[in-house]
Amino acid sequence: MTDDVVLWLDRASAEDLYEVLWLVGEHLAVGAPIPALPHEANERLGRMISTLGRSLGKTAPF
What is the pTM of this model? Predict the structure, then answer.
């Protein structure tokens, strides 16, 4: 048995995740503010993060 965590993402969620990770990295590198994401992207990423947290046995900190 492995300790791997595997998430299956729909295409839109995978694109959102890629975009936000790229934006954060690029903006942090140059010290620029991170722009707000569209509402739909925020919703998809929120669901994905919740699923990931449950897979890791974590609860929301708030």
Answer: 0.70
